[in-house]
């Protein structure tokens, strides 16, 4: 009799657990479709060098939004520091970082009047964004070589697909034979979903006349949509599709702030953070929604995300200055930029006020 009740109790617990699992799955499924390739990356198994070479990155330096629609937390630092961003690490020696920041200030201060205007900051932001662009071009050369080992200057979708599947652990020869013979690949559902997303992106990067081949320049657009107006538009459509709950191809404030915090693959058991919602609300109302009608169109989002839009760069310059402009003169002095170093560089300088003028 004891065994009977024990068995019955275990079955009850199993039924309850299954019900809870299904409930959680249904809740998560609302935003389960990944807008980028992050779902394919197991946190316990970091992506291989080969996979990093050929997969479009989730994060694009100098872009305001990530590929999955999240706000880029490092955007201010990326457009202020450019390729020097890695030099400002949290554990770096504060005096060294301060001297480096003083040097940057002197470069941004183009007319050498010991203050930085919005126009000077705009010019600097455009210059630093271009640095990120050039770095992407250099990385693309290596990535393209990885998918074009015969050096004929172009890659077919099937060649790329074989390379991608091999990077995921599938047998390269077996996959190549199956693709050549138009046989079913029999990959897992997650891999198939990412393949379909990559294929759509691949054909978007194939400039007219479409030949289903990508040259090095087109492959750059495939990996880095910020380098192409057409691919930037495609990226915007993807983000809107993932956030647009009523399928009207526009975003309301509630849609923009409803995306759960964190990457797509680890949503469960997370509450939407109040600060995160407040940040997205402010960005939507004050920056993205250009005409303040409560609706963000694809055109508005594309203009907002265009990294080489000089009007955006000027607005960004004004916002950055406003954060640290304690004397309210609409310019930045050295003392101000050092005091707010964490905002500009991600590194807090504890001794920013010490002998500033002497060192400068």
TrEMBL record:
GO molecular function: calcium ion binding
Family: Belongs to the CREC family.
SMART domains: EFh (SM00054)
Domain EF-hand residues, every copy: 96-131, 135-170, 276-311
Taxonomic lineage of the native organism: Eukaryota, Metazoa, Chordata, Craniata, Vertebrata
Entry-linked CDD domains: EFh_CREC_cab45
Main localization, broad class: Golgi
Species assigned in the record: Salvelinus namaycush
Cleaved signal peptide residues: 1-32
Region described as Disordered: 37-58
Biological processes, Gene Ontology terms: calcium-ion regulated exocytosis
Alphabetical UniProt keywords: Calcium, Glycoprotein, Golgi apparatus, Metal-binding, Repeat, Signal
Domain of life: Eukaryota
Name the UniProt record assigns to this protein: 45 kDa calcium-binding protein
Coiled-coil spans in chain: none
Subcellular location: Golgi apparatus lumen
Composition-biased stretches (Basic and acidic residues): 40-52
GO cellular component, one term: Golgi lumen
